[in-house]
From TrEMBL:
Domain of life: Bacteria
Protein name, UniProt field: Lipoprotein
Record PROSITE patterns: PROKAR_LIPOPROTEIN
Keywords: Lipoprotein
Organism lineage: Bacteria, Pseudomonadati, Spirochaetota, Spirochaetia, Spirochaetales
Amino acid sequence: MKKLINKLAAARRYIEPSIRIKLCVLLAVGMLSGCAKALPAQIKNALFSQKRNTGVVDLTRMSATMVYAEVFNMMVEPENYVGKTVKMNGMFYVYPDEKKGTYTFACIIMDATACCAQGIEFRLRGEHAYPADYPEPNTNITVQGTFYTYEEDGFTHTLLIDADMTVRK
């Protein structure tokens, strides 16, 4: 058993940090996809149409641990955030959907130890084209938009609509 642990520890040292981060992001997205089981349409519409939240959730003023916890909470209990304005700092990521010929844009945040990542999809206000109107992937950004949910392929997804994005220095 000790030999196995030593071999795993040695193998871990040879994995590039950027690959480690990408694997964590992929793992986090996969875990969130599996956890976000969709509600039946009637229940979802009843919940979200009756409870429209107002206010601002400013994640830019929180510690990395608190931001990660708050974003996790948004994934678990999205009905508490629908309609609120959310502002967050993170890394810009783009995910192409080759079947639809579209792109999904997300602001990804890391936890305090930078081992795990979570993100929120966003759609910018107005008309924009990728790549002309977007920064390079892995660019530090600030995004602010209205929290919303939608259902696709039997899963509930979260996103910020009518979002504004700025590149951070």
